[in-house]
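Might you be able to check the backbone structure tokens below? Thank you kindly.
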Amino acid sequence: MVESLQHRKGKDALETIIKEIGFVSLQEEDLPRVMTTLGQRDYTADILAFKGGKIYVFEVDGKKGHFTPRDMVKMKLRDTVLLERFGIKTVRIKTRDLVGRKKQPVSLIIEDIEWQLSRQTTGKRHAITTIEAVR
């Protein structure tokens, strides 16, 4: 799938924001291949980030591939598998909140990131903490 200019700009904007709050990041990183209820899946993170010895996934959700009921189920499944199997929390920010005329102030994006992370708890005792473990 070809990435839109808006999506690219959204990823760049989000990466700048998360770096401001202490994350180290990489764009377009492959995640572990996992077996799900939909079969075996390969995933690529928009942004793979590290902070405090933990790994996080940041996704920029635009119109393409993120709004049909099926898309929503697939995203929820992916996020759940990453959290439960690997202890990786996922943050999703809409493209329109990051770029364009209606973009949100950075302070609100940071609040949203913190809120999303605070709502996710892992049952995983041994969360992955290195990029080598993800690959």
Q: What stands out?
A: The CA atoms of residues 39 and 62 lie 25 Å apart.
